[in-house]
Amino acid sequence: MGWKRPATAAGMVMLLALAACGDRVENTEMPQPEQASVEINRQGMEGAKEENQAQGVENNTSTMGAAAEQSARTEDADAKIASDVQSSLANDPDLAAMKIDVHSRDGTVTLVGRAPDPAARDRAGQLARGVAGVKTVDNLLTLG
Prior knowledge:
- 42% of the residues lie in helices and 15% in strands.
- It is an alpha+beta fold.
- The protein has a domain at 62-144: Histidine-containing Protein, Chain: A (2-Layer Sandwich).
- Strands 1-2-3 form a three-stranded mixed sheet.
- The chain starts with a helix and ends with a strand.
- It holds the Pfam family BON.
């Protein structure tokens, strides 16, 4: 057993020596390749176009703005329709206690929830149809 102690000590000395000799990596970030040079202004100062117009591209923001404005108006109208239908349902004494989700898209109203009986289900559909701006009603109320 006398040989184990010197062997262990020699092993520890070797491990410490190897640890001291090891290369330390200070920067662990991956090197980034250089980016290719891009010619930004091919026309030069003489051929520059107006600030808002690129060569060969028509800049028609009025059409884009009109489409966005129309979409916003449609969303506002649908939100108002859904709100009005929800108010109409809440003001009905037979339906006020029911939890009915109302969604509207392009004037089509969808009713989702539970009705206690077929009469309540039909009444909710009738009230929704009576709201201004409603084109059709998709009555998905289930009985139960």
